Amino acid sequence: MPDVEPDQCGDLLWSPRAENVLRVVGPIAVAAAALVMLARSWAMWPDVLLAAIVGHVRMMSVYFERKTYTVAGGRDAFLADVRAVAVTEALSMIERYIGPRQTLAVLPEGVMLNYLARRVNPTPHNNLMPPGLIAFGEQHVLQAFADDPPDFIMLVHKDTSEFGARFFGRDYGLRIFEWIHAGYEPVLVIGHPPLRDERFGMMLMRRKAS
After folding, report:
1. Which residues, in sequence order, are CB contacts of 208 under 8 Å at separation 6+?
2. Which terminal Cβ of the chain has fewer Cβ within 10 Å, N or C?
């Protein structure tokens, strides 16, 4: 699998969200710039508006030019960057190891895998990034997993430094991470071991026999 550059190690599985942010924020920024300049000078605002539009188009171009890989197929298909290679392999491994009626949690974030693989997360928690754990409380989330443990867990690389804690299981969510490692065993690693450094990867884990 091709190595992923550090600045590409954001959130592949939620690229539609990032795309929507760009689509919304871009036009708003353009409109705001236009209104400001319109208020200041009727003569200057067309040039400023044009510059804002050009800047937005260039930003979108950079964003989309990385998306040269296809994930999934049919109506589920979408374009993504090089991490699509790992995601495609993950979907194949889920199909191989996880039965249609078995359950899967993708952590700390990755409900798109659940959707694409048609595997259900039995808990109400699909996002264990810092804001989610703060909102619900780590103990509450842990209890939900303990009450209805998924058959499999997929750990997906996610750098959450923007929230003040870089990696799930190392900088936050330690009790949940300990619970996972106590009750689950590794099945395989796709790409690089996740949640360690800047390299992208995933780890599929199976619940230990009781």
Report:
1. 183, 184, 185
2. C
